[in-house]
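Extended Data, panel c. Modelled sequence:
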Amino acid sequence: LEAVPVGLKRHRAVQGSLCELEVLACTELEKAYESEVRLITGRTHQVRIQFAALGAPLVGDSLYGSEAGAEPAAGAPTQKIAPGPDGTIGLQAWKLHVRAMGNSEGDSSAVYEAGSPWWRP
């Protein structure tokens, strides 16, 4: 397995729309890597599509991963890792910033954080 490089910025058209993300961190786990990604645009499936194009499909991703016959990048790992509980893939939003703009009291925002994902003990 190879890590996705930290600092990597990807620009790619996904289903006709420009999408952009940045890899902030990448940690090696027992059978995979865990990456922290900042979504600059919020396109449907953009993390799944862009990581598969790098040859680093998400754990258990049968739509865009190697299980679906996606063509990995040259020299990319092809190891398949089973999905998580209930067939879930290795993707979780751990923190969301939601901004509410244009209200009478000025701009406001809320932050929501998730618990630990299924792949962490």
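Strands lie at 9-14, 17-28, 33-39, 95-100, 108-113. This feature is highlighted in the accompanying rendering.
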